[in-house]
Amino acid sequence: RCSGETYLSRIQSGLNAIQSRVPDISKLTLVFGDLHLDHIREWREKELGQYPLEYPLWKVSYDDLMDDLEKSKIRVVLSAATKDGVKEGTVFTRNFRNVVEALGMDGFGENGEFHSVAEVWAASRKEALGL
Q1: What's the whole-model pTM score?
Q2: Backbone angles phi, psi at 91, to 5 degrees
Q3: Cα dihedral sign for 46, 57, 77, 126?
Q4: How far apart are CA 40 and CA 73, in angstroms?
């Protein structure tokens, strides 16, 4: 975990790296995978509001997200864990979601219980988009 200030400096470093390759970033849109935490979205809009922001998964039901993930066949692996019963390296599946929910955690780790990475590089664009 890091402070909001550290997070912002990391985003700015990433934007600087993009701008070094793409000088006109005026068309840049920042996209976040936030699902439902209003205070996080409000913070992002306050701190990063100078950029267009998009939240394509905002308020999508967990069942719909899980169905889409399974349809895509994209492997998702936990990249960090902060709670007992959750281990880095675990593959995110419907069963895993059910287990963490039974332990009283958010099924998609929205409260910081875990973070994940979708291995989109291992699939075709068509598979990744569930087409």
Answers
A1: 0.78
A2: -80, 130
A3: negative
A4: 29
